[in-house]
């Protein structure tokens, strides 16, 4: 073991060097940022514990190993691989230690893990931050099959649809007595091209009755927050309509 001692010490020392150097400044990144679809998002990283005359030499932001934003002081250039990105601080200068990014027109695909590296004349450091993206659903809409002239005890299918949300939410069905009918429904989550989702909830009323013609569809987001609701009243056939049908007369609409 003894002959290895000095070599091991040297190895430990050498591998510590970059850490000591890096330790001179500290990059602090927010663990989690939340952005809204099509709005601006903030990817937050700032250098902490610096002396007032520190200057930023290089900033590299990466996503999944691919660089997406680079500032290089020597050439005073920004190499923006994504034109939607810029420093979040308006009129940023290399003496500004807030190297957070502003991401414009946020898309669902922008969600994920981001890495940030900063080199200053007082040392360097790296950090990580993540972005979650959310999109609100459109107001839910309800329709029924058949749409009108529903008879007592008829089987009726109701749909409640809402589009454009992310992450996927859920739909609950209630009647006027607040009885929860969700178990009798089936909700399909259809993914759109940009990863946003449409919810199509199909609820079958096995025996519709004009005593209780009123239903409500409640839309919840992925966190379980109520995002919207739609009320719907089944359109039963009028008594006159029924009499006419009994004598074999068919009324359209
Ligand atoms: C960095 O700048 C952005 C934009 O001005 C601001 O929202 C954010 O709070 C700043 N971060 C820190 C740590 O000061
Ligand atoms: C909801 O989706 C179903 C199935 O695609 C469709 O038949 C129905 O017309 C839609 N309803 C509304 C109100 O958009």
Automatic annotation (TrEMBL):
SUPFAM superfamilies per UniProt: Immunoglobulin (SSF48726)
GO cellular-component term (any): external side of plasma membrane
Main location: membrane
Protein name: Ig-like domain-containing protein
Keywords of this entry: Cell membrane, Disulfide bond, Glycoprotein, Immunoglobulin domain, Membrane, Receptor, Signal, Transmembrane, Transmembrane helix
One record GO biological process: cellular response to lipopolysaccharide
Ig-like domain location: 6-132, 140-233
Subcellular location(s) per record: Cell membrane
């Amino acid at each position: 073991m003894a002959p290895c001692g000095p070599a091991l010490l040297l190895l430990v020392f050498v591998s510590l060097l970059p850490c000591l150097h890096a330790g001179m400044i500290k990059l602090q990144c927010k663990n989690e940022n939340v952005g809204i679809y099509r709005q601006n998002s903030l990817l937050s990283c700032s250098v902490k514990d610096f002396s007032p005359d520190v200057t930023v030499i290089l900033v590299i932001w990466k996503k999944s190993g691919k660089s997406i934003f680079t500032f290089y002081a020597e050439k005073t250039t920004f190499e923006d691989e994504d034109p939607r990105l810029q420093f979040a601080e308006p009129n940023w200068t290399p003496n500004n230690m807030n190297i957070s990014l502003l991401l414009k027109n946020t898309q669902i695909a922008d969600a994920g893990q981001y890495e940030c590296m900063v080199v200053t004349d007082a040392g360097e450091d790296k950090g990580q931050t993540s972005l979650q993206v959310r999109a609100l659903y459109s107001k839910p809409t309800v329709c029924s099959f058949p749409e009108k002239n529903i008879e007592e005890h008829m089987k009726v299918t109701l749909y409640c649809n809402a589009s454009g949300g992310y992450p996927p939410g859920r739909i609950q069905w209630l009647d006027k007595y607040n009885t929860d009918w969700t178990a009798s429904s089936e909700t399909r989550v259809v993914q759109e091209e940009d990863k946003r989702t449409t919810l199509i909830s199909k609820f079958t009323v096995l025996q519709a009755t004009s005593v209780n013609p009123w239903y409500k569809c409640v839309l919840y987001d992925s966190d379980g927050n109520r995002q919207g609701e739609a009320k719907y009243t089944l359109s039963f056939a009028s008594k006159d309509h029924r009499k006419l049908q009994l004598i074999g007369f068919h009324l359209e609409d």
